[in-house]
Amino acid sequence: MPSLNVNGQTRDHQAEADTPLLWVLREHLGLTGTKYGCGVAQCGSCTVMIDGAAVRSCVVPVSSLGAQQRITTIEGLSPRGDHPLQKAWIDLDVPQCGYCQSGMLMAAAALLHRVPKPTDEQIDAAMTNICRCGTYNRVRAGIKRAAGIAVADKGASTTAVLQVPEQSA
Ligand code: FES
Ligand code: FES
Predict the structure, then answer these.
(1) Of the bound ligands, which one is closest to the alpha carbon of residue 138?
(2) What is the dihedral of CA 121, 122, 124, 129, to 10 degrees?
(3) Residue 150 pLDDT grade (very low, low, confident, very high; cuts 50, 70, 90)
(4) Which of 53, 117, 130, 168 has the greatest CB tally within 10 Å of its CB?
């Protein structure tokens, strides 16, 4: 029986070889924090980390993964849900409906894993996930808070970030 290393545990599964990792996580392993959005690697809602890199799990056939590759899902980002990004997300009320946010967090975690103090340009380049609710400014603020980056014009920019009007769903 094939197995995966998910959130530090060896997990066996019986999925067909061409099953996307997303569906193995959700349907076979019960890890439903990783969300389905588009299925074609465009939206990022299915983002997980594989060996520290952000990967869109909807287009990764499970057979392409070996048991030695470390897969991290939102459930494994922090055992107690207190990863600096998760704390920043709570502090800044980043999510609106929340559907895209596990993917956002995993993409952000991969970014900080690679670049502990990213510039705005590096954040923009890494965070290509789509949010229907338009939380982009708060996502960027959350990444900066988690990274310990002081916002240049603190009062104005932090307040402005929090006051950006939301699009209705
Ligand atoms: S569901 Fe994978 S990128 Fe949209
Ligand atoms: S919070 Fe991103 S889609 Fe709603």
Answers:
(1) 2
(2) 170
(3) confident
(4) 130
